[in-house]
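Narrative summary of target 7.
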Amino acid sequence: MEEAKRILYGRRRGRKLRGGQRELLDDVVPGLDIALDDAPRPIAPDTLFPRPVREVWLEVGFGAGEHLLAQAAVNRDVGFIGCEPYVTGVVRMVRGLLDARLDNVRLWRDDARLLLDGLAEASLSRVFVLFPDPWPKTRHHKRRFVSRPVLERLAAVMRDGAELRIATDDGGYLVWILEHLQRSDAFLWTARTPSDWRSRPSDWPATRYELKALKEGRRCTYLRYRRVSREGQGA
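Modeled conformation, tokenized:
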């Protein structure tokens, strides 16, 4: 896709940070940030970590980091890139990293599309897009992260056989996601039975937002797509 413009919808800041949170933001977070402007393109994401990693997974919009932290803790040989512009969520997640002594997470605190444009092709083994903002008003649909250009770029940076996981509790956005992915010849929906999208797999930790949605009676859908082989794509 064409190089993304720096357009980021949604909030970056919430309540004023407390002293300890401010110290994390000033002293710890910068050491985890990906310096895209200073890195030679394209970026090989497995080189971003202080030690060798088996593969690299990306989460777009990690919120307060519940899912990202849980995945990083049980997959310590995997490198994780977390994209999240919301400062309070970033600080909470980083506190969790320090508490768990995890060194396999790096941060991107800007528009995720900019990062995707900088990554080397076929360099990601798994991508998570969990409960993205549905932007329900028709005039705001152009703000939705799931779009044809983004899926094209994801297809480029994901390895053959890599997995794309998307979750939503919004029926309208679910239809939108399915329409876009089913039109793509780069991704194959792996579901075989209704339980495959109605129930969250055991290796898919819950997020705070998801638990709130379920408590309020909203139905969540869990989609898993596989990046098809480039040799077989379009066949």
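The first helix runs from residue 19 to 32.
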